[in-house]
Each structure stands twice: as structure tokens, then as C-alpha cells.
Amino acid sequence: MRSILVSIMALFVSIFLLLLGNSLLSTLLILRGVEEGFSGKFLGLLTSVYFLGAFAATLMASTLIKRMGHIRCFTFCTALLACSTLAYVVHVAPITWLFIRFLTGFAIFAIYTVLESWLNGQTQDEYRSRVFSLYTLVNFVAVAASQQLLLLDNATGYMLFIIASLLVTAAIMPVSWTRLQQPNIAIDMPSMSIKKVVDAAPVAALGCFVSGLVLGPFWGLTPLFITELGYTNKELAAFISLSILGGALIQYPVGLWSDYMDRRRVILFSFVFGAVFAVAMSYSALYFAQERGLITLFSALFCGLIIAVYPISVVHLVDRIHKDHLVAGSSCLLMIYGLGSFIGPAIAGFALEYMGAAALPIYYAIVLVIFSGLLLIHLMRSKIVEIPEDHESEFVAMVRTSQNVLPMHPESEEILDKP
């Protein structure tokens, strides 16, 4: 395992630097947008456009890699991301920001595709599970750590944008320095229609869609929610970091619980209690806004439940299909999640614009209550009884980046051609 880690360390360092820069930028844009007087509905639309760019990348990245090769495609997209990071402060205007945000989403998710397909090619089958878990950990730590960089300056200046661009640009160096061969694996994923996925596991599709509807606004609009509560940059950084880290830890017991009971009921449990904690966040924001620790606790509990829904949905799908279809099926779930992530921020942005800060967790609660009802009706009508002893797979925490990370999933039986 040590030799494997040494060989792929350059890829992990690049991923960490990219996530530091891009996650810092995501929060920074909302803060700068507030300072520029941009409306909540515009900032919601800005987040939606980011996920639209991400969706475009999932469709086009493979073609770019075939045309350019992994290293040149990585360098091209990283340069695009670094330039777009600085372009936000070159021309501060809503239409310009929408265009740049689309390019940002496209660039970062194309980079995910390059690095994850490369990582697949360098990972031996017996180590996939551990490398997959380490990759997930690196993602969570980088996103949480990036928020602390907000303390270096305020959003009205140029320094934080420069730092974000520097981090993204620095990510080119480890990949350029490495002696790793470019992978010879086929980056085209086997096809499986969304209809077949929905027919095989409708609750998995529902869980991913709702996860996108809720987490899309959470990642994109939480800085606006916190800013309207009067938090300082230090308190904002602590809130987001603790919410992400706390949520990452809480999702494990929730996910492991799904190995011992009907996973559909665990998803329903996550929806219901996620709605409860969302209401608690909103109530605290209205009447106990100075109780920073209380709101942070509710946010961490909420994150833990909702972040767990996507990996539980994936493993529920694996229970219903053959394991060699995991990559194709999970790719469809990722697209469903992306659709939710595109729709959610636009709706939540309008709510924030007209109802104030407390509207964001109320939006979460409304979405979760509606889909809890739909899921409950489905379970009552379903003739399929899911027996935990018949589970074909086990819960594995995972991130939602590109479909090329899916062959590393421990349950995947896809055969990869090694270089």
C-alpha cells in the first residue's frame, strides 16, 4: 500500500490544492456578491450556472481527454480555472459573472474527470477500497480547510482571489513533475439509461435528486445565509468548516446503519430528521441568532444526514443491479444529482431574496417534507420487501465529483486495463 500511495501522491496533492482554491472561491464569490449588492436570487442563479457547467463537463470531458491526452487536458482546464478565478474581479458585473461561473464549473469538473480516471489507472484492484476512502477524506478535509483562508483578507479586495488562483495554478506542478504514465484505460463509461435505473431502484433515484436539491444550495448559498445573520468572516469560516467535518463524521453511523435495515427506510429517516434539523436551524436563526454554537450543531447534524443520502442511494442501487453495472448505474445517479443541484440553488436564491436568511433552512425543510411524503407513499404501496440480510453490498462514504471515480468504488467489478 505504501508504494501505491507514493506513486499517486502527486495526484492527491494536486486534488488537495485544487479543492482548496476552488472551495475558497465558491464562498468568496457569495461574500463579494453581497458586498456588490447582488440579489439573493442572482446568487442562487450563479450557483445553478456553476452546476450547469459541471454537467457540460461530464458530457464533454472524455472527448477533450481523447483529443489532448491527460496531461495537456489537465493543464488546459487548470489554466482556464485559474484565469476565470481572477476574471471575477477584472469585471464585476452580473452577466459577466454568470459566463465566468459556467466556465469555472466546466473547468473544475473536467479536471476531476482527468485526475480520477488517471487515479483509476494507477490503482491496483486490491487497493481500490482504501484509495477510494482516502480520496473521499482528502475531499472533505480540503473543503473544510479552505474556509480558514477567508481569515487572510476580506472579500472586497483582490488578495483572496489571487490566493485562490495561486492554489489552482500550483496544482499543475505536482502533475507536471510526476513520472506517472498516462493511463491507457478506456474513459468511456458503459451506458445504462436513467429509466432502467429508476425502474431498478426508484428510491435511489429519488434520494439523489433530493440530495442535489438540498446540497446544491447548501454548498453555494450557506455563506449568504450566514452573512445575513451578521457573522464575521472568522465565524463564517468556523461554521462551514465545522458543518462539513461534523457532517462527514455523522454520515458514517447513518450509512453503516443502512447495512442493518431497509435502506429505503434509512433514506426516509434522513429526510424526516433532516427536515427537523432544518426547521431548528431556521428557528435558531430567527430567535437565537447569537447562539453560534447551537446553529452550527444543527447544521452539522443536518449535513451528516443529507450527505449520507447519496452514498446510501448508490449502495441501494448496487443491491438491485449486478455489480458490473455499478459504474453505469451510478453515473446515471450522478446526473440525477446534478439536475437537482442545478434546480435547487435557483429556487433557494429566490426564497432568500424575498424571505431573508431563515428562508434557506426553511427551503431545505419544505423540500424534505414533500419528498418524505412521496417516499412514504411509495413504501406503503411497494410490494418489494427489502431484507437487510439480503443486502449485496455495504455502505461506503463517497463524494460527488465525476463518474470516473466510480470504478474505484469497492463494489465495482469493472475490469480496467492497466498501463
UniProtKB/TrEMBL annotation:
Name the domain of life this protein comes from: Bacteria
Named from the GO MF annotations, one term is: transmembrane transporter activity
Name of the featured protein: Major facilitator superfamily (MFS) profile domain-containing protein
InterPro entries, per the entry: MFS, MFS_dom, MFS_trans_sf, MFS_YcaD-like
Where, by residue number, does the polypeptide cross the bilayer? 42-61, 73-93, 99-119, 131-152, 158-177, 197-216, 236-254, 266-288, 294-314, 326-348, 354-377
Task: Give the keywords, sorted.
Answer: Membrane, Transmembrane, Transmembrane helix
Major facilitator superfamily (MFS) profile domain segment(s): 200-419
Gene Ontology CC terms:
plasma membrane
Q: Which SUPFAM superfamilies match?
A: MFS general substrate transporter
